[in-house]
Design brief:
globular; 13 helices; two-stranded parallel sheet; 195 residues; mainly alpha
Length: 195
Amino acid sequence: LIVMLRLPWVRMHSAYWSGQQYRQRYNSSAKGEAAWVDASVNSFLQCEKKFGVERCALSFESLSSENEAAFGHCDQLIRGLYSVFLPRWRQDHPRLLALRAEQYYSRPREVLQSVFSFLNLKTDDEAAWSRLLAGAVAASPDREARKPPMLGATLAKLAAFYAPSLKELVGQLSDQPDARRWYQWMRYGIEEVYS
């Protein structure tokens, strides 16, 4: 199994500006995004107090009528709780390669080389590399430019919410060949928020 993970608050920001339903409810502004994040985090934390992180991440809307009524059932927030899902993915797929989306966007060849190595595929044909990299996915500059930046307080709220999960995730990925980079990814992401 190959999974690509993105810093959770970057993922949330992208989801807000890509998903019409969020902006229709909260409006197309950074303040609307902040209201959505506040509602999602607060709903999840209420659930967590009663049922714990894992149960809320795996069965949120089925645990209570309040959760069922929460807008979007905190689905986007929950998707960034990678440390809850990783053990289940590994249970079904003992061979797992975890990748960082930010690294793929900035250095696609390096990431694809690790994929080929994981799959035991040969990667020394430069013509094939040219074709592969011609179609490399990058964060769309046009779409990114249309998004207002996330408010600092919103970013800080999400960083605080995800910090325990990211710390756990780094521990879970300590067996990966690039374990140190996972620590740097998590740490850089959090420092980026607070600097």
